[in-house]
Design a protein that fits this description.
The strands form eleven sheets. Strands 28-27-26-23-22-35 form a six-stranded mixed beta sheet. A five-stranded antiparallel beta sheet has the order 15-17-13-14-16, with no helix packed on it. The two termini are about 30 Å apart. By secondary structure, the protein is mainly β. It is built from five helices and 37 strands. About 10% of the residues lie in helices and about 35% in strands. β5 and β6 form a beta hairpin. About 0% of the residues have low confidence. The chain folds into two domains: about 170 residues, no CATH class; about 300 residues, no CATH class. InterPro entries: Vps62 (IPR009291).
Length: about 500
């Protein structure tokens, strides 16, 4: 099946299913990517596939799997005149959920023996994620699916099936199909400590900084050793911070009671701002994802200073003096490892207030299996490929630029890293550093008249475009209009939750 803007998509029916196991749905993907995916199968009682249990529950006398009652025809490509494909939604018995869609090449309704539905208490709700197909004239859309609730403590496991419909579906709308729930609290498919080290050594990316980068990363101890001070509300005198952060207030929340700032001496301040690439290392948080079917290796990088932004207006570029700068900059990227086979599945690139998942086959690699991560000039956002990325209006060519390029400045995360947390391994296996428990800001909050910098840009532009430009500047992120130090990794939403995209 094809659309005018793509090479089409293909649908796959699982074959070679072991005896006693049953299909839960069919698989779909774009023809523009290599064939790569999975569909889970299930069987009764104490058996499981790849760590996902489908078992009797002590509170239920009903079987975990049952045949559908019948099917509803969702859509037929025969009516669209572009082939013979019939899409069927299984109608589950009361108390059960369908896991996926079936595709046939005839109008004859499939046999109920083709598939199994899963008992409702063994499932989690799911939602659409990436769009695989969107046809215009006769509405028919196909999406990948994912659990509605995602994060370190969530149990939803993606079956690997797809969802399709002839009506509009909101991203967070609960679907008529579900995903599985992993009831195995041991998370036995997750890697042990030795396996984590092996994965990082095998897949650890090389991070490249822009050739004109002025504000390099450093290790956290280097930051503390070079005169950074801890301030408390109501006390104008800063206190030196122990190199391991043992005297930082721990726990609580970001209540504004404490913050860090650079040394008062100008030479010392400028020295800290520049960072220290030789000391820099990646700080690694390992956690379960999608019910333990995947392992997320979040790699955090610390920069003592975030430099001012560059603003692009058409063909003109304006380097700001203050706009966008702040003390302390925590950025990260995440490797998602498939626990079914140990493959690098995707990588998440954090880009300021958002980010993007990139499939492994779309990454650039160095030294075999190690992806490349590009860090943007001054802002240190992560990107998968070199170039200039615009944050703003791409249509008008107006916004903040993120410039990334390969250079001699780099960190090999496969050798320069420290594992700072892996909660699922249990207490005491990984010792969390003292500074990780500091939940306040790693820099001061400073409000300044950044609007005057933008007004200078507007005054240089032709009169007939000034009004529209001014309106767009008003839409820029509020963090550009003042300095506000970020909180540390453990205070971020993605520490317990999934990545934002």
């Amino acid at each position: 099946m094809a659309s005018s803007k793509s090479k089409g998509i293909s649908f796959y029916k699982p074959v070679g299913i072991p005896d006693g196991y049953f299909c839960l749905g069919h698989y779909c993907q774009s023809n523009e990517q290599p064939l790569r995916g999975y569909v889970l199968v299930a069987r009764e009682k104490e058996s499981f596939t790849s760590g996902v249990y489908c078992d009797y529950d002590s509170d239920s006398d009903f079987p975990a799997l049952r045949k559908p009652v019948n099917y509803s025809l969702i859509w037929s490509s025969d009516s669209a005149g572009n082939g013979c494909g019939f899409f069927w939604l299984p109608n589950p018995p009361l108390g059960y959920k369908a896991m996926g869609i079936l595709v046939t090449d005839t109008s004859e309704e499939p046999s109920v023996d083709e598939i199994r539905c899963v008992r409702e208490d063994l499932t989690e709700t799911c939602e659409i994620s990436d769009t695989i197909l969107s046809s215009g004239s006769k509405p028919f859309q196909v999406w990948n699916t994912r659990p509605c609730k995602r994060g370190m403590c969530c149990k939803g496991v993606s079956v690997g099936t797809f969802f399709c419909s002839t009506y509009s579906v909101d991203e967070e709308e609960e679907l008529e199909i579900a995903c599985l729930k992993n009831l195995d609290s041991t998370l036995h498919a997750m890697p042990n400590l030795d396996q984590i080290h092996a994965l990082i050594k095998h897949y650890g990316p090389t991070v490249f900084f822009h050739p004109d980068e002025e504000y390099m990363p450093s290790s956290v101890p280097w930051f503390f050793k070079n005169g950074v001070l801890l301030y408390e509300e109501g006390n104008g005198k800063g206190e030196p911070i122990d190199f391991c952060g043992s005297n930082l207030p721990s726990g609580g929340e970001n209540d504004g009671a404490y913050w860090m700032d650079l040394p008062a001496d100008d030479d010392a301040r400028n020295n800290v701002k520049k960072g220290n690439l030789e000391s820099a290392e990646l700080y690694v948080h390992v956690k379960q994802a999608l019910g333990g079917a995947f392992t997320d290796i979040a790699m955090w990088i610390f920069c003592p200073f975030n430099g001012p932004v560059n603003i692009k207006v058409g063909l003109m570029n304006f380097q700001m003096n203050k706009l966008g700068q702040h003390v302390g900059d925590w950025e990260h990227f995440t490797l998602r490892i498939n626990n079914f086979n140990g493959e690098l599945w995707q990588a998440y690139f954090s880009e300021h207030s958002g980010g993007e998942w990139i499939d492994a086959f779309d990454l650039e690699f160095i030294q075999g299996n190690k992806p490349i991560v590009y860090s943007s000039k001054h802002g240190h956002a992560s990107f998968a490929h070199p170039g200039t990325y615009l944050q703003g209006s791409t249509k008008l060519g107006i916004g903040v630029t993120n410039d990334v390029a390969q250079s001699e400045y780099s960190i090999d995360s496969s050798t320069r890293y420290q594992i700072i947390a892996a909660e699922y391994l249990g207490h005491g296996v990984v010792t969390e550093p003292c500074w990780l428990q500091y939940m306040r800001e790693w820099g001061p909050t400073v409000v300044y008249d950044s609007r005057s910098e933008l007004d200078k840009i507007i005054s240089l532009l032709p009169f007939f475009v000034r009004f529209s430009i001014e309106n767009i500047f008003d839409l820029f992120p509020t963090e550009l209009y003042g300095e506000e130090g970020p909180t540390g990794p453990k205070e971020k939403d993605n520490w317990l939750g999934d990545e934002r995209c």
